[in-house]
Write a structure and sequence with these properties.
The protein has ten helices and 18 strands. It is α/β, with parallel strands linked by helices. Helix content is about 25%, strand content about 15%. The protein folds into two domains: about 350 residues, Alkaline Phosphatase, subunit A (3-Layer(aba) Sandwich); about 60 residues, Arylsulfatase, C-terminal domain (2-Layer Sandwich), CATH 3.30.1120.10.
Length: about 525
């Protein structure tokens, strides 16, 4: 009897244990499924260079600027040979990438100091979409998309908004405009970093206000050019002199908050590492917008002399270092495998862009600096509609999903919204991101052709690409070779756009012209 009771007790215990085991196993399976679902959302990091040309990177043919970190990134991912920003200048490209809308539709161009926010706060943006999809979103770096409301002076001494946070970023650490414009201070979320309330900051486009009072407590380069001790301005950068560098626009006050031009990259990387470490347990989207290699080029002293190309080449080496530090931070936090890293630039290269920083050029298109052609085999660069203006380094690495390769597919930054919406199964309303095309297959290496068509823009010119054919309209006042007449090029046989074929292939030109007009008027 006792043996039988013991047997029954043992049997009960076994059954309880079995039920508990399967119950726990089921619970673990449910948790595992949930964890897998979260893990299936890759982190997204966009490393965005400024004025970095197709030929400024070793993986794209540069021999005079060492870029081992970017080259490693290219070797581990997809290196696109036909990757583009949407415009040949910075603000329009950034606008298009973050909204999925061509900048010309809303008259968005390069912004002056104190410009209001160009992106409406009531539309769906890339950071808003990713935030709604469960991502933590952050931006670190150069903004240059405007801050504040239209028609209202920005209160730089209070809450500086609307800006990045109002269009979907949960945190931001910025150069409010860009490094060649005032104010020369960091904006941390809505507040100017280290601002002394007893030394209020004021920003203006004009040297005097309506009462005739000076708007600058800093030297005015037009009156005191000798104050530009870092290097002189060649054109345009001759208003308030801050840190020995002439800027666009005027500012007064804020001396306690001034940035040090030579340590901007170090500050950005420190903030980036903290962002990655803080958010490593959940999916995040980081938009790292470097100020390198935009003017004024002020590489940290430890990078000076790294190339034979002066400040521009040395600033590119600094940007490569920053890219390596971001890759290292991802690796140290165990995030390499499931993080999509996109490396690109806001437009093509420029040499003398307002400062006498030692960059030398060949005046016919400005194609070479002491033997270094920053646009590679392509003609033109920043401000120009030719391929050098928008064809930029474009690298996508995602070790969990992408096999390393070189792709000739046509891809564009404006299509990131539609492509990520497909990846994350997020439905974009028909009224949002109207110019963004789903190009996910190409971005993952599963489509070798890419976009069926693509537009390129400058302030006064537009172009359409369909396959290897390119059709251009409009006149560029900064290009002495621009006549304003439509142009047609076959990039397969003529990548440098030297032979205009519009008279030889009028039917092809007419087809592209019709498609371009249709898109522009839609």
């Amino acid at each position: 009897m006792n043996q039988f009771m013991n047997y029954k007790n043992i049997t009960k215990l076994f059954l309880v244990a079995t039920i508990t085991l399967f119950s726990c196993k089921g619970s673990k399976n449910q948790t595992h499924k949930k964890e897998n679902k979260v893990a299936s959302k890759p982190n997204i990091v966009i490393i965005y260079g400024d004025d970095v040309g197709y030929g400024d990177v070793g993986a794209y043919g540069s021999t005079m600027i060492p870029t081992p970190n970017i080259d490693k990134l290219a070797a581990e991912g997809l290196r696109f040979t036909d990757g583009h920003c949407s415009a040949a200048t910075c603000t329009p490209s950034r606008y298009s990438m973050l909204t999925g809308i061509y900048a010309f539709r809303n008259g968005v161009n390069i912004l002056p100091p104190n410009a209001p926010l160009t992106i409406p706060t009531d539309i769906l943006t890339l950071p808003k979409m990713l935030k709604q999809a469960g991502y933590t979103t952050g931006v670190i770096g150069k903004w240059h998309l405007g801050i504040g409301e239209k028609g209202v002076d920005v209160d730089w001494n209070g809450d500086v908004k609307p800006g990045p946070i109002e269009i979907g970023f949960e945190s931001s650490f910025l150069l409010p405009s860009t490094n060649d414009r005032v104010p020369c201070v960091y904006l941390d979320d809505h507040k100017i970093l280290n601002l002394d309330p007893n030394d209020p900051l004021y920003v203006s486009r004009k040297v005097k206000d309506v009462q005739g009072k000076n708007n600058t407590q800093y030297p005015d380069a037009k009156i005191n050019p000798e104050a530009m001790t870092f290097y002189k301005s060649t054109h345009g950068h001759n208003n308030s002199v801050v840190n020995g560098i002439g800027r666009i626009g005027y500012m007064s006050g804020g001396k306690s908050a001034l940035w040090n031009d030579e340590t901007i990259t170090d500050v950005f990387i420190e903030k980036t590492k903290k962002f990655i470490s803080k958010n490593k347990e959940k999916p995040f989207f980081l938009y790292y917008a470097a100020q390198d290699i935009h003017v004024p080029r002020t590489p940290h002293p430890r990078f000076k002399g790294a190339t034979k190309l002066g400040y521009r080449g040395d600033a590119m080496v600094q940007f490569d270092w920053a890219t390596g530090e971001i890759m290292k931070a991802l690796e140290e936090n165990g995030l390499t495998e499931n993080t999509i890293v996109i490396f690109s630039s806001d437009n093509g290269p420029v040499y003398d862009d307002g400062y006498d920083d030692g960059t030398t050029i060949n005046q016919s298109y400005g194609e070479s600096d002491r033997g270094h052609d920053a646009s590679g085999i392509y003609t033109g660069g920043k401000y120009q509609i030719y391929e050098g203006g928008t064809r930029v380094p474009f690298i996508v690495r995602w070790p969990a999903k992408i096999k390393p390769a070189v792709s000739d597919a046509l891809v564009n930054q404006i299509d990131l919204m539609a492509s990520f919406s497909d990846l994350l199964d997020f439905e974009i309303p028909k009224t949002a991101a109207s110019d963004s095309q789903n190009n996910l297959k190409a971005l993952l290496g599963n489509d070798t052709k890419g976009l069926p068509y693509m537009l390129e823009e400058t302030r006064r010119q537009k172009a359409i690409r369909i396959g290897h054919w390119k059709y251009i309209i409009g006149k560029n006042r900064k290009d002495k070779n621009s006549t304003g007449k439509p142009q047609l090029y076959n990039l397969e046989s003529d990548p440098g756009e030297k032979n205009d074929l519009i008279n030889k292939f009028p039917e092809k030109a007419e087809t592209l012209a019709k498609k371009l007009k249709e898109i522009m008027e839609s």
